[in-house]
Amino acid sequence: MTIDERLVVAAPKNTVARNNLALIYSQLGRVNGLIASRTIGTGEQKAARWREARGWFEKSLQIWVDSAT
Predict the structure, then answer these.
(1) Tell me: the pLDDT tens digits for 4-30?
(2) CA-CA distance, 41 to 55, in Å (whole number)?
């Protein structure tokens, strides 16, 4: 993830790095969603995991949207 983030900063039009980064962010969203759905904890702990998952999905989506324009 760090490598692709650096590549995107250095070369914003690098589609390979952007696609990789979007996929990485999406997978982080999925992992956090799975943890939230399977974790036994307080409602606030689960909500925090869901918020983190949503944040990763939003970052991924933003890359795809930016790539389409």
Answers:
(1) 999 999 999 999 999 999 999 999 999
(2) 20
